[in-house]
Amino acid sequence: MNSNSSSSPKVPIPTLERLATYLRFLIDLEAAQVETISSTDVEKQTGINAAQFRKDLSYFGEFGKPGVGYNVLELQARIARILKIDQLQPIMVIGAGNLGSALIGYPGLTEHKFHIAAAFDRDPAKIGRPQGDLVILNEADVREVNAEIGARIAIICVPAAAAQEVADTAILAGVRVILNFAPIILKVPERIVVRNVSFLQELAVLSYHLSGESQK
Amino acid sequence: MNSNSSSSPKVPIPTLERLATYLRFLIDLEAAQVETISSTDVEKQTGINAAQFRKDLSYFGEFGKPGVGYNVLELQARIARILKIDQLQPIMVIGAGNLGSALIGYPGLTEHKFHIAAAFDRDPAKIGRPQGDLVILNEADVREVNAEIGARIAIICVPAAAAQEVADTAILAGVRVILNFAPIILKVPERIVVRNVSFLQELAVLSYHLSGESQK
DNA sequence: TGGAACCTGTGATGAAATTCACAATCGCTT
DNA sequence: AAGCGATTGTGAATTTCATCACAGGTTCCA
Ligand SMILES: NC(=O)c1ccc[n+]([C@@H]2O[C@H](COP(=O)([O-])OP(=O)(O)OC[C@H]3O[C@@H](n4cnc5c(N)ncnc54)[C@H](O)[C@@H]3O)[C@@H](O)[C@H]2O)c1
Ligand SMILES: NC(=O)c1ccc[n+]([C@@H]2O[C@H](COP(=O)([O-])OP(=O)(O)OC[C@H]3O[C@@H](n4cnc5c(N)ncnc54)[C@H](O)[C@@H]3O)[C@@H](O)[C@H]2O)c1
Question: Which nucleotide is nearest to B52 (CA to C1')?
Answer without folding.
Answer: D18
